[in-house]
Design brief:
230 residues, 12 strands, alpha+beta, Transcriptional regulator, 2 domains, cNMP-bd_dom, Jelly Rolls, cNMP-bd_dom_sf, Arc Repressor Mutant, subunit A
């Protein structure tokens, strides 16, 4: 993650995301701009973030390493959204890893300097509550879909969410756990995708060769989603 001193780009992202509308206090002058490469961390696991990040462009994933060493996927983030808001509100919260799926641009506000002002900013707290409620609602919908749709639809959506430049690289064990299916069942559906020419197995992962087929399957499950923009 690298700070970028580009006033013009920063202003463009501020306006495009409506960043300032999340606050009643003036934070623009103290807001920094960071560029995060695909695979780099926005927040490192176990390390409290120094900034309240606002994902202005890009996608990221949230995960945690369990006591037995296994990595558990938790959620996915798409711009625009806050990252690090839980650590801002709860200083005792154990930070989870947030990793960029693709190149990301983040606006960032120093937590140490702005914790007290933000926790007394009614506009920010109201917007934060709305954002958290939307995340919770999305998780409820995801749980409902997991119970109602076959794995082929859910995996198609998952591949679209996690791919970068049409390459899918997620570990099978983590994906099976996240989706609540057996490792064997997951491999069966992936094999079906490869046999149908949707994916091609490579050493570094799977190349998506028929993205429209994945989009069609994902839209059967979530017709209002914008999978075609991923």
């Amino acid at each position: 993650m690298k700070e970028v001193l580009d006033t013009s780009l920063k202003q463009q992202l501020l306006e495009a995301t409506g960043y300032s509308q999340n606050f009643s206090i003036d934070v623009v002058g103290n807001t920094k701009l960071f560029h995060v490469l695909a695979g780099d961390f926005i927040v490192k696991e176990g390390h409290p973030p120094s900034y309240l990040f606002y994902l202005a462009q890009g996608r990221a994933k949230l995960y945690s390493t369990l006591a037995n060493g296994r990595v558990s996927l938790i959620d996915f983030f798409a711009a625009p959204c806050f990252i690090g808001e839980i650590e801002l509100v709860d200083m005792d919260h154990e930070p989870r890893a947030v990793q960029a799926i693709e190149a990301c641009w983040c606006l960032a506000l120093p937590i140490k300097q702005f914790r007290a002002p933000l926790l007394n900013d009614a506009t920010f707290l109201r917007n934060l509550c709305v954002a958290l409620s939307k995340k919770n609602y999305r998780n409820i919908i995801s749980l409902t879909q997991n119970q109602s749709f076959p794995l082929i639809n859910r995996l198609a959506a998952f591949i679209l969410l996690t791919q970068h430049c049409d390459v899918y690289r997620e570990k099978h064990t983590s994906v099976a756990e996240y989706m609540g299916v057996s490792y064997r069942h997951l491999l069966y559906v992936i094999a079906q995708f490869t046999q149908d020419g949707v994916l091609i197995k490579q050493k570094a992962g799977y190349i998506i060769t028929n993205k429209s087929a994945l989009i069609a399957l994902a839209l059967e499950m979530a017709p209002d989603s914008e999978f075609d923009k991923l």
